[in-house]
Amino acid sequence: MGSTSTVTVLDGGMGRELLRIGAPFRQPEWSALALTEGPDWVVQAHRNFIEAGAHVITTNSYAIVPFHIGDDRFRSEGRQLAALAGRLAYEAAAPFAALTIAGSLPPLFGSYRPDLFDAVRADEIIDPLIDGLRDHVHVWLGETLGSIAEATAVRAALDRAGEATTPLWISYYLSNRSPLALASGETVAEAVSAAVDLGAAAVLFNCSPAEKISIAIPIARSVAGSRAQVGGYANRFATTQADSGQANDRLSEFRDDLDPVAYCELVAGWLRDGATMVGGCCGMTPDHIGAISSLVEGGGGKHGTVGGNDAHRHSG
To answer: Can you give the pTM of this predicted structure?
Structure first.
């Protein structure tokens, strides 16, 4: 890893961490179920990652979309659920210094399906999420995005909400057909360039196999230059979910060859290639994050965050 760079440790996969610790969890609600049926579990899951060494926790708002909770419930409760996710992240982070809370803005019409993206309907889903989360986050994280159009919709929504000055991180997932492209067919280089042009302070890759992220990181570093940080947070799925039906329609099995030590070997390669933000996605546990934290601290990487509890916008 570059000796002059700071390295930010992201958290791990919220949904499967909730399941692992015994929180209320089922399809189709996925991680959103715990918001109403077990909010204390959400706080505990956040703290598990914090105590493992994460510098950033991501709000449990990924599944607050009609795809998971239904159109009617989203219309009536979407904003309130997003606000609850923000408050729970704040509660988890409050006892700790210099933590960053990232507001998760997920794919609006289902993960891994950029072909379903509907620009006409996007506003009615993303606007309530931003409105509910905005008092509780330091940065916005558009994650698991499969096209430049999805990233553009995130930027437009934040501008519309008056959030133009709050840092934005854009995270893409990679095509199963080629680690050099998104599922939309747009190349990694094109996607990174677009994210930087949209003002992203960081361009990441997530919910993809770690080996594919290893290929994308140096491309991203080359395209982004000094204009944005780059990084990744891989999943631990044994098969690519995009090939196995709708997102989160079943519990995917995990790889047995990606324990914390093995994952850190891949992450170390990302750092050598210029990544400055690393963590885990679905199936990456606090043990994985703890190993990454030890790698970063042992390798001389300094903790780098955006914002922090002292700059929190929580309104009580």
So the answer is: 0.92
